[in-house]
TrEMBL record:
One of its GO terms (cellular component) is cytosol. This is Response regulator transcription factor. SMART domains: HTH_ARAC, REC. PROSITE patterns: HTH_ARAC_FAMILY_1 (PS00041), HTH_ARAC_FAMILY_2 (PS01124), RESPONSE_REGULATORY (PS50110). Keywords: DNA-binding, Phosphoprotein, Transcription, Transcription regulation, Two-component regulatory system.
Length: 270
């Protein structure tokens, strides 16, 4: 496991993990405590569960913002626990990130189909864990029930937050093309410098890194919910070729669009 407190990583926004309520569901005590200690140092409120049944009970009782879920656990495995949480109106809105050492594409697909929003590989790279958490928590306000000491206003209540929200709306409406930075800035009513600073402050990434992430989310949705050809999806999302889209999708999710869709179809067979 690797941990870093480099100025670059801190600059990317890990300070925004302060005050976040996270549940770690992991049956291996050493890994559970290592991850918990790292997140506590970032200022998170961390809750622990050692098996799938405990994870469900803790999520129902504590209502964390996000669950880090091991795939292989006793009582209920991670996939079963995830499905149960997603089917419960009390916990269905909680984001779940799977943790596993298994890199097989079909295992990743099964996790996504169960309702997870992302997949973190073991052994952990703490920089990656922190940045992925920051990404998935970006649109959630910090719960008022447990405010962090010295916590600053959340981005949505600041000028940076207003700029970010306006730019995000513009980008989501223009996934099929790659606008220039000054176009995005004008749409958000600001200048390029302020635009860049707002994205760094609010989500810890550049404008185009964020656009790429939004495209990948939309790609997954289109592959799952439509019969569009992969080439058509690539064009709709602004990729110059199906090959470029395929490479980007595989980099993000660990499998090609075709593999993802094939696993979807296989899962639906009786």
């Amino acid at each position: 496991m690797h941990e870093s407190t480099s100025p670059e990583i801190q600059r990317l926004g890990l300070d925004r993990l302060r005050g976040r309520r996270l549940l770690i569901a992991e049956d291996e005590e050493i890994q559970r405590e290592l991850l918990a200690n790292y997140l506590r140092r970032q200022g998170c409120h961390v809750y622990l569960a050692g098996d799938g049944a405990a994870a469900i009970a803790q999520a129902q009782r504590l209502q964390p913002e996000l669950v880090l879920m091991d795939v292989n656990m006793p009582v209920y495995d991670g996939l079963t626990a995830c499905r149960m949480l997603k089917s419960d109106h009390r916990t269905g809105a909680i984001d779940i990130l799977f943790m596993s050492a298994n890199t097989a594409p079909d295992d990743r697909v099964q996790g996504l189909l169960a309702g997870a929003v992302d997949y973190i590989l073991k052994p952990f790279n703490f920089e990656e864990v922190g940045l992925r958490l920051t990404l998935h928590l970006q649109g959630k306000s910090t719960p008022s029930a447990e405010p962090a000491v010295g916590m600053q206003s959340r981005p949505s209540s600041t000028l940076d937050g207003l700029v970010f929200e306006a730019a995000r709306s513009y980008l989501r409406s223009n996934l099929g093309r790659t606008p220039k930075l000054d176009q995005v800035a004008r749409a958000a009513g600001t200048n390029v410098s302020r635009l860049n600073n707002s994205f760094k402050h609010c989500v810890g990434m550049t404008v185009f890194e964020y656009l790429r992430e939004e495209r990948m989310k939309k790609a997954r949705q289109l592959l799952a919910e439509t019969l569009l050809e992969i080439q058509s999806i690539a064009r709709e999302l602004g990729y110059t070729s199906g090959a470029n889209f395929t490479a980007a999708f595989k980099t993000r999710f660990g499998l090609t669009p075709g593999q993802f869709r094939q696993e979807l179809r296989h899962d639906k067979l009786p």
